[in-house]
Automatic annotation (TrEMBL):
EC class (word): transferase
Modified positions (N6-(pyridoxal phosphate)lysine) in chain numbering: K191
Annotated positions binding pyridoxal 5'-phosphate: A74, S75, F100, T148, D167, Q190, N232, T233
Organism: Pedobacter steynii
Name under which the protein is recorded: Phosphoserine aminotransferase
Entry-linked HAMAP family: SerC_aminotrans_5 (MF_00160)
Gene Ontology MF: a single term: pyridoxal phosphate binding
Cofactor annotation remark: Binds 1 pyridoxal phosphate per subunit.
UniProt key word Transferase: yes
Protein location: Cytoplasm
Binding-site positions, L-glutamate: R40
Amino acid sequence: MKHNFGAGPCILPAKVLDQAADAVRNFNGLGLSILEISHRTPEFEAVMKETQDLVRELLRVPEGYSILFLQGGASTQFSMLAMNFLHQEKKAAYLDCGYFSQKAIKEALLFGQVNIVASSKDKGYNYIPLGYEIPEDSAYFHYTSNNTIEGTEMFSFPPTTVPVICDMSSDIFSRMVNVADFDLIYAGAQKNMGPAGMTLVVVKDTLLEHIQRQVPSMSDYRIYRDNGSLFNTPPVFSIYVAMLNLRWLKEKGGVKTIETENIAKAALLYEEIDRNPLFYGLADPDHRSRMNVTFKMYEPAMEQEFLDFASTRGIVGVKGYRSVGGFRASLYNALPISSVEILVSCMSDFEKEKLN
Ligand code: PLP
């Protein structure tokens, strides 16, 4: 058995993988694969509706918000949101809190002016900046709620009167958030939703009244809203597997239940990192992510040896991101606590081997 701590793929429960495999062979008993059916069939329209309903229910999305499924990954949102909401008269406020917020800023600059309200670049993005002003005349305020690469997460969101746009790619569905505090939430599917290829956008309808620029159809949020995300061919399979996965989450008890599990998983691993004399954590303890745990060894030459040791126990995907090095263990929703226990005992056994 493999224990997959990878950061990019969606870790899916076995039940979801079985159901997806069945649908690839024969979807709903139609004698056709899910990969072969038209997105205009009543069967797929039912999938679309159930997926939207599950997102609404699990995230407790209030009235007045639309749920959209787009292609292009979260990276396309970096430019698309600026194309829609950044215009000449106003600056957009950005919190520079990690690699992906930096990328979002770079794309926004193609469409207007950006005001970086605070940055944690000085310390390699190992903390979340606090105590900054967001000018009230900003077009919007953008931040990344969980920094997948650096392993930091925001646990309090600054109050502001300007529209709030948040990249929740790597912590959506992992914890309860108050959707009413946001005007637009976006997230690539491939962490806690489903296979890559689909991007979720939850947008307040009133925000869509602020689009001033001429926007190409495929980049216009209103087109997706007005066409029920069926303006062009949507990522049928990704949406279908996301639906199965969200059904699984609902059966488990929903986001509050998984949040309790995620807190326990992260606590277990951070405890071992802090206890074990071979390892140290990279993120400021107050801002440690529950989804992506980054750590290193005091003796870097030992890191490859630890990776080899871990792989003999079925542990995969713990190598750190290339620009950070060390290790990153991603603890997405479907990763069971038993896998974290295996990683923790592996770290402790490695310590015994090295220090005894
Ligand atoms: N934002 C965050 C927080 C991410 O973790 C990622 C990818 O890991 C992205 C954006 C980019 O997503 P995509 O690869 O779907 O474009």
